Amino acid sequence: MERVCARRLGVGGWVCLMSAIAIALGSESRARAAEPESSVPPVIELTETAELPGVVIFPARASGPRPITVVLHGMCGEPIRTCSHFAAQVTESANLVCPRASQRCAGGGVSWPQAGFADAVEAAVQRAKTALPEAADDEHGRTLIGYSLGAYRALEIAQNSSGKYPRVMLIGAKVSLNQKLLAENGVLRVLLSAGGWDMMHDPMQREAERALKTGVVTRFLDLGPVGHAFSPSFASYLPTALAWLREG
Length: 248
Hints:
alpha/beta; Rossmann fold; 2 domains; eight-stranded mixed sheet; 39% helix; globular
C-alpha cells in the first residue's frame, strides 16, 4: 500500500492515504481498548496552598505497606510530566511521590530555589503520606530520583538526609559525589545516568568511575541515543535501574 501511495499523487493517492490513516487509527483504538486499565496507575494531585507545597502522587498498585520513591523534576518542569515516565513501573512495588517546585518560570513550569527546597520536599512527602490509600513502609527507607536541576537538589538532600534516602538515582546532571557525606547519611547506592547525546553523559560516566574508587557503591547507566530529555525508550532502561537500586 505504501508503494502505491508514493507513486500516485492524484485522487487515488489521497484515497489510499486516507485509508492508511483510517486503518492506523483503527488499530490504535483497538490497542487502547485491549490495554488493561490496571496498567495505567491512578494519580492524586494536590495543589499548593499558602502553607504546603504541591505534590503529585501515584499510589502503589500492590496492596499492603509499600515504600516511597520521590522524584524531583527539572528546571521549569512539572511533576506530572516527569513522573509519567516512572509511574507505571515504580508503582508496581512502591508509592511514587513527586513534589512540585515553588519558583515559577516566566515561560511556564516551576524550578527549585537555591535554599529551602529540602524542607519543601519533606513537607510534600508528608502531605502525600496522608493522602495514600494505605500506610507507607518507612522501615526500609526511600528511593530518591532527580532529573537535571532536580538531580542537583536530590544529591544535596541525600547527602544531608540522616538516612532517609539509602537509594539515589541522578539523571542528566554534572554532579560530584561526596563519599564522606553519603556514608554518614546512610546512602547505600547511587546510580548516575544520562543519554548518549546528553552533554552530561561523559562527565557523569567519569564521576561514577571516580566515586567507585573512593568507596561509593555507584554505577553509570547509559540511556541510549537520546539527549537531555526523556524519550519513549526510557521505559526500557528503568527496570534495570530500579532493580540495581533495590539491591542495596
